[in-house]
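Supplementary Note 3. Input sequence used for the single-chain structure prediction.
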Amino acid sequence: MKKPSMERKSRTSINQAKNREFAIVTYLFVGLFLILIAYFVYFQVVKSEDFINSPYNTRQNTFAEHVIRGDILSSDGKVLAKTVVAEDGGEIRQYPYGNMFAHAVGFDSNGKSGVESFGNFSLLRSHAFFLEQVLNGFQDKKNQGDRIVTTLDFGLQEAAYHALGENRGAVIALDPATGKILAMVSKPDFAPNTIAAEWESIISNTDSEHSVLVNRTTQGLYPPGSTFKILTTLQYIREHPDYQSYAYECTGSIAIDETEIHCYNNSVHGAEDLETSFAKSCNTSYANIGLGLDKKRFAQLCGDMMFGKSLPGPYPSNKSSFVLDGKSDRDEVGQTAIGQGETLMTPMHMALVTCAVANQGKLMRPYVIDRTENYKGVHVKQYRSLEYGSLLAPEEAEKLQGFMESAVENGTASALNGQAYQAAGKTGSAEFSNTKGESHAWFTGYASTEEKGTVVVTVIVENGGAGSTAAVPVAKQVFDRYFSGS
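The predicted structure, written as discrete structure tokens, is reproduced below.
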């Protein structure tokens, strides 16, 4: 009598085991299905526009068969790019301000660049009134594409463009509190209205140093010179809480093994503390500082400051390089501490570091598309500020602000002192060849008023010499225009 009972228990156990296996498989498939649905929703809401807007997506070409490409506007309503339709239906892309916005707005022939590229999807879709679209469909007419309103300030762009003049180089201006790109100038530039006709001539020039297609603000890699002392100073402060007791006697030069480092124009600065060394941009003092830094921690700091990383923002950018490590010799350390050696930075990277300093350590992601509208101005999509992360602590940012203010009040950026705005910054003269006297001129800094807030401006003038005489005047014209409001 017991045997059948044992068999029933055995069958029950087997059935229970099968039921558990079935439940596990069922839950697994349900879970996978829910994950698939969640990703589908995520893709549609977050990623679909990125894929559709990719320049490698040929689907975009079909949009142009039904939509007239929309306009691109400055933040103050100036039309920077528009499509003119001829009587025969032919479409011509026009850029009313020519070269002034060449790299920022880009071009729409022989490929795309700038806003024309990463805003392509928005420009080729239409949110015109649906009855209008239906009527156009019956009449075999194209709908008018949406327009992009950028964060670019026309007056600021104009000031930066003219201030840089005939020099090669770059100017970038940003709002550090939001990440808005307010101006972006790169020279040499190109004429977007005639780029199609000149294309063969443009691409035949393989010398990247003189290529007009290179956006020097995000793709130009330069030795940062003394502007890099912002980071050397930060590392010294981190390693030396008693940094205010630093003392050095500058004699105009310092010997490091077989290399001799000189201050700019062999200036002799005499007795200095850390703030004075920064304000006067003393190379010998900073080479001396570099020799005492922990090389691994210095490399870690620069990694945290986005060296070797892709920069946030819509424009294609090159990665800045910092090669110092625990095996680096004394000469390389001294050169690196003053922004020479193998260190290379893009102007955009330097501007973002400056933004973090000006914004209490917090970096906002740079962006240039403020919103999209239909062609009658009806709102379609608003873009918003997004935080990238904290690059340094608020108290560290405050200390660096004081150093940069001192460079304006008593140092190499004194041309910005006594203005209607409060300015702070750092100059740089970066040697780029073995020829004596050849150096790029740098300035990076910010200015503020209670009424207008803060704007960051970074300038590089290729082969411009001293930052104080070539780059600071460019930045001053941009600051003056921003705070004058005219």
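The first strand starts at residue 67 and ends at 68. Residues 2-52 form the longest helix (51 residues).
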